[in-house]
Task: inverse folding
């Protein structure tokens, strides 16, 4: 990711984001009198990760009962390869908007984007993701023009249901996005489904704000502390241009909440709450702001208040993966294990190639339900490289299965990242019996807490 920013933006970001700003000199920009000094954000330390999973090794999945679709990452056709954040953002927005229809089953971003850079035919994608339709497209952005192509394909036959090319001024971007979303929704679920999306659409008014918003989402999706810091600054920049954006406030709340987990920072939690409540006040319809408020209450052990908010979040975003993730963990912490499993398994179907949050939630939930083999399977699928308590919990699961040597190895990886001391300290669980179940597994492996 190497987007351009103005000198005014750059001045506000220097020292706040962990990226390098490269001076591009002065540029003339449309609707701005006089030259503007521009900079490029360079992230030379970032290396694209390997795909989350190989589709070749994935199981074929049955089709759901409702019309189902996967939106693949749009190809960046711009002369500048660093504009990929923009084409990714267009595809991600389409996923978000289509997911607003309760009449559609939409594969989550993490599984769609796991296919990025892989050479896979549409029919195989349909089988492995369990969808009837696939959307693919491309974006070319140059100066004040943007060209977007999109096509809706029936996966089993490869037939094109709908295809269009839009060659417009960049100021028409939002209109183009709305039209693409509505045309696809019309083709899949007709007038009622399309109207449902239009009713709940979150509008943008500023291209500059939208560009900063996309950069913020691009950064936070990497789930590292460094990139989450950058995501916070980009989202704050977006709100500087569009202060009443409910969507940007909700994502900023999510980023603050994630950052508070990285740092165990109470001030970040307070900032998350402030942003989430502002998003709710502005009418966030995604459920994300409500889910963040629920998580913040859950972290403080206020589970009755948490449930009030996660129920609202789930009503608004029953298929929105980021909402499901937060709600699943709150149910896990509060001891509502059957609900946590239901949400985890719903997430797994929405994102069958996901190897991170889905299997972390399922590994913990299956363990507390006494399903240790299923728990271990999810632990093995979960791509955990940094979470100390995750390794401690893996050790407990192995201990319950009588695999003491492997358990001690997992415990060693936990201690490498953070000396645990008392396992109970910082535990998010409401019920003492859940904490004791983890400790019992550690004891069976010969590990004393």
Result:
């Amino acid at each position: 990711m190497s987007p351009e920013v103005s000198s005014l933006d750059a001045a506000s970001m220097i020292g706040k984001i962990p990226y390098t700003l490269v001076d591009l000199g002065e540029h003339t920009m449309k609707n701005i009198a006089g030259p503007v000094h521009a900079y490029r954000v360079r992230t030379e330390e970032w290396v694209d990760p390997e795909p989350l999973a190989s589709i070749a090794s994935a199981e074929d999945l049955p089709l759901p009962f409702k019309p189902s679709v996967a939106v693949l990452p749009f190809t960046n056709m711009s002369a500048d390869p660093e504009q990929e954040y923009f084409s990714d953002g267009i595809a991600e927005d389409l996923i978000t908007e289509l997911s607003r229809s309760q009449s559609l089953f939409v594969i989550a971003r993490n599984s769609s984007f796991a296919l990025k850079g892989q050479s896979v035919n549409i029919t195989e994608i349909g089988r492995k993701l369990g969808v009837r339709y696939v959307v693919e497209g491309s974006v070319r952005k140059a100066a004040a023009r943007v060209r977007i192509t999109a096509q809706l394909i029936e996966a089993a036959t490869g037939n094109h249901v709908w295809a269009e090319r839009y060659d417009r001024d960049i100021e028409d971007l939002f209109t183009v996005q709305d039209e693409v979303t509505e045309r696809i929704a019309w083709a899949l679920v007709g007038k009622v489904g399309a109207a449902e999306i239009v009713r709940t659409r979150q509008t943008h008014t500023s291209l500059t704000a939208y560009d900063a918003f996309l950069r913020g989402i691009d950064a936070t999706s990497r789930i590292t502390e460094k990139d989450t810091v950058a995501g916070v600054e980009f989202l704050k920049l977006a709100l500087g241009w569009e202060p009443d954006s409910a969507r940007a406030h909700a994502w900023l709340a999510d980023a603050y909440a994630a950052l508070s987990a990285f740092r165990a920072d109470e001030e970040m939690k307070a900032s998350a709450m402030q942003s989430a409540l502002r998003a709710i006040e502005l009418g966030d319809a995604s459920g994300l702001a409500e889910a963040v408020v629920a998580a913040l209450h859950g972290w403080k052990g206020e589970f009755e208040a948490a449930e009030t908010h996660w129920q609202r979040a789930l009503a608004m975003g029953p298929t929105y993966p980021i909402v499901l993730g937060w709600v699943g963990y709150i149910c896990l912490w509060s001891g509502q294990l059957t609900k946590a499993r239901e949400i985890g398994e719903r997430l797994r179907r929405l994102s069958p190639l996901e190897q991170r949050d889905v299997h972390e939630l399922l590994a913990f939930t299956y363990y507390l339900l006494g399903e240790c083999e299923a728990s271990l399977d999810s632990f093995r699928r979960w791509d955990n490289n940094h979470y100390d308590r995750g390794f401690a919990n893996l050790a407990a699961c192995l201990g319950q299965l009588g695999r003491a040597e492997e358990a001690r190895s997992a415990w060693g990886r936990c201690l490498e990242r953070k000396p645990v001391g008392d396992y109970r300290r910082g535990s998010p669980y409401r019920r003492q019996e859940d904490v004791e179940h983890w400790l019992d597994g550690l004891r069976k492996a010969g590990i004393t807490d």
Observations:
- Residues 20-33, 35-40, 42-53 have pLDDT under 50 and may be disordered.
- Residues 384-444 form one domain.
- The chain is about 55% helix and 10% strand.
